[in-house]
């Protein structure tokens, strides 16, 4: 048994994988051999779905077939919609999403089949239904009527439409699609690791994804995108943001949207792409002030802490300008990551070894309970 203890499993290799790898030196996120950023600039989210599920980029016919399969799986069981409506008003939207994913599991005829074929069918069902749980969960909580999926729209446009009630422009659709790609897969973050740990007991894909939702909710992980937007709105101007950040730093508080366990002092390439998307969107929507505030925040953190923005820092204002309610930023992240997590669960089931680490025990020894008298 190795005696090495690395808190937070920092730099520990936890799996062998063919899915993705962060090559920090080359500043490249390798996904099945491709650079994720190059993919985001050239293909669509549904291509990434094919790439992650089948190992190769789909041709146009194969992509259409993926979209058709997704459309066939649109729609939530009425009882699941009722469950979403019965949740209390103050429910957190990641908890709503967790409950919804947990609830649809019982409707899946393939639930207990761990074969690659069955797991792939389940992944497609999840990809079809998770966006609707996100949208319906929000609409139930805010007492708005559900919006049925529109099969005339692309997968991506339909996702935005079900949330906002408005058919997005081509530019909004393209930017949202790009955001789904950069959120789709990222090696072994806490949520993917949680899903693989769960899957390694031979538990099912739905259970693994439910665990990943709980992991992603935390502000040190996916929850950061919502916290970023709250900070940007609280500041409202460049001068205020600088003061707010300096004040937080003087109190040793973390600034959400900066830093990363793996990139550390290097830039997150996904953030740079979303920064470009924000510039385009802000110009189109006459919201350049928001872009300028973000850039100033980036400069302050570079100067004060030599920290770079991570994806969440620029994805947050992009989602804000797309009209996505702030409470849904992290659920949308999870919806996009559903494909990456599914690919990892499939890989885990295909070549499984139960995760069961050991500990450095630091507690007392040789204690004895009081002896029973008589
Ligand atoms: N704000 C201020 N200081 C920071 C930040 C930050 N966001 N991130 C790291 N630091 C500082 C730490 O205080 C520490 O400084 P010190 O050495 O002077 O004590 C140093 O940088 C190293 O930090 P660690 O906590 O050791 O880094 P770790 O790898 O554990 O943290 C993490 C990574 C959790 C992402 C961290 O950077 C953080 O809390 N960021 C804010 C939350 C966030 O944006 N999460 C999203 C991650 S990306 C994603 O999920 C898509």
Automatic annotation (TrEMBL):
Pathway, per record: Carbohydrate metabolism; tricarboxylic acid cycle
Listed InterPro entries: Citrate_synth-like_lrg_a-sub, Citrate_synth-like_sm_a-sub, Citrate_synthase, Citrate_synthase_AS, Citrate_synthase_bac-typ, Citrate_synthase_sf
Keyword set, alphabetical order: Transferase
Classification via SUPFAM superfamilies: Citrate synthase
Domain of life: Bacteria
Region (Disordered) location: 360-374
Reactions performed catalytically: oxaloacetate + acetyl-CoA + H2O = citrate + CoA + H(+)
Family per record: Belongs to the citrate synthase family.
NCBIfam families: PRK12349.1
PANTHER family, per database record: CITRATE SYNTHASE (PTHR11739), CITRATE_2-METHYLCITRATE SYNTHASE (PTHR11739:SF11)
Name this polypeptide is given: Citrate synthase
